[in-house]
Amino acid sequence: MAILSVEELEKSFGDRQVLRGISFRAEEGDVVSVLGPSGTGKTTMLRCLNALERPDAGRVAIGSVSVDFRHASKKEVRALRRQSTMVFQNFNLFRNHTVLENVMDGLVYGKGMTRAEAEPLAMEELARVHMEQAAHLYPAELSGGMQQRVGIARALAPRPEVILLDEPTSALDPELVGEVLDAIRKAASLGITMIIVTHEMRFAEQISTKVLFMAEGRVVEEGPPQQIFHHPEQEKTRQFLRRMLEREQEG
Amino acid sequence: MTFDIHVMASAFLYILPAVPRTVLLAAFVLGAGIVLGAGIAVLRIGRHRILNPVLAVWVSFTRAVPAIVQIFIAYYTVPFLLAPVLSAAAGAEVKPFDVSPYWTGCLLFILYHAAYQSENIRGALLSVPKGQYEAAMSIGMTPGQARLHIVFPQALSVVLPTFFTYYLHALKALALLFTIRVVDIFSAADIYAALVSRRTEPYAADALVYWMLCLILTAGYHRLEASLTRRGRAG
Q1: Where do the domains of chain A lie?
Q2: Which of A34, A70, A80, A203 has the most CB within a 10 Å radius?
């Protein structure tokens, strides 16, 4: 059974329809990369999965919670949101909390653990991303790469059904991208299902079990990375990949 | 006329007992104003269809009209409003002019500071990036937890220096209450001036008291600020 299923998701901002009926599924342990040109609704789609953007229509099911957004109560939306965690492009670490507290927060407030229960678990996650030395620093004292590694630890700690990663390396200086990609690889090796919106083509090819190619608010093509990267069926996919891979080679 | 340092010294001693009273009263009216202002700020950010415009008009009025004008308006109306309430509470008739001007002054300044602070707090709340709230939601906090543990503390570190600046204002603004017979640091000096029939020395002593008080409070505030700096530093 799929751990995540999305059916006919639609979202408009004013007159502009951003998502025009998105459907896909992910099995437990899948790493799904979402690729596509800028402005095609990849981030909006991801933010609909935890209802940071409320879809106008469609159904999202994660784990045991299924929500039809045409008539969803606040309670249902909150239950859905608790099935996932998110890694943000701009990290969004809590600026008034230490690194350790950032990772503990999801356990304490989300899961209702005591601080004594949460602390060793949080330290374990920090060790996984090699940030245990920084446990008592504040986010402002860290580099972007370090902040994002903490962001990954924070998303991992509550062991959600799915982790949503929204362009996790796009705001980083190029030399900091590697350490964050390594942290994501480690997270993936735990077998947690992940949905990653990314522009890192090589990384997507290596890490994914499944690739979605989106354009103009629709899923144009989906399949295993071998197929999408080496034998894409759609002309739009081919053009996009050619452009992106050229850019990566220049870079 | 010669300046008599002895008169100034005894004026100084006469004024001192009014200091704790004034410091506490300023803290009370500003503190209550901050609490009320925070409520108004939250309501206004919520953009309630009826409350928001009503509050906007009231805030605009309070900030535009000089405090002394408001004091006079309050002095000649509040006792008439409060008297029936106090009569009911006391079980005996309380006449409007039995209502202490002290309470009129308190009520007025609480509302006055609430108007100013609601704008400060609103700005501070809006200065916390939306991503902070979203991140809190994404790891399973309720909206209430997200505000209490993430948004409010960050807004507080933005607005705290302003609160202190306004505290010094609040302290000095109480001097206006001498016009309605409330004895603060300034009224004490004024009374002493009348007692000794000299003006320069008592007022000079009064200025000195304000200045020293301001220096002491500022030093105290800087120590507090230093201990809070590490927390909530902008990222």
Answers
A1: 4-83+160-250, 92-159
A2: A34
Phi first, then psi: give them for residue A98, nearest 5 degrees.
-70, 170
Ordered structural domains, chain B, with CATH: 26-183 (1.10.3720.10)
CB within 8 Å: B135 and A106: no
What pLDDT, on a 0 to 100 scale, did the predictor assign at position A148? 96
Note the residue count of chain B.
Answer: 235
Instruction: Indicate which of B139, B147, B229, B233 best probes the interface with A, i.e. most A CBs within 10 Å of its own CB.
Output: B139
- The string of DSSP letters for A110-124 reads IT---HHHHHHHHHH
- Nearest C-alpha neighbor of B114 from the set B166, B71, B73: B166
Instruction: Give A231 or B46, the one with higher predicted confidence.
Output: A231
Q: Is the pTM of this model over 0.80?
A: yes
Note whether A94 contacts B140, CB cutoff 8 Å.
Answer: no
Give all strands (DSSP E) within chain A, no chain letters: 4-13, 16-26, 31-35, 57-62, 65-68, 84-87, 162-166, 193-197, 210-215, 218-223
pLDDT tens-digit map of B167-207: 999 999 999 888 887 888 999 999 999 999 999 999 999 99
Nearest CA distance, A184 vs chain B (angstrom): 18
* B50 CB neighbour count, 10 Å cutoff: 7
Q: Using the Cα atoms of residue B179, residue B182, residue B185 and residue B191 in order, give the sign of their dihedral.
A: positive
Fold of A4-83+160-250: Rossmann fold (3.40.50)
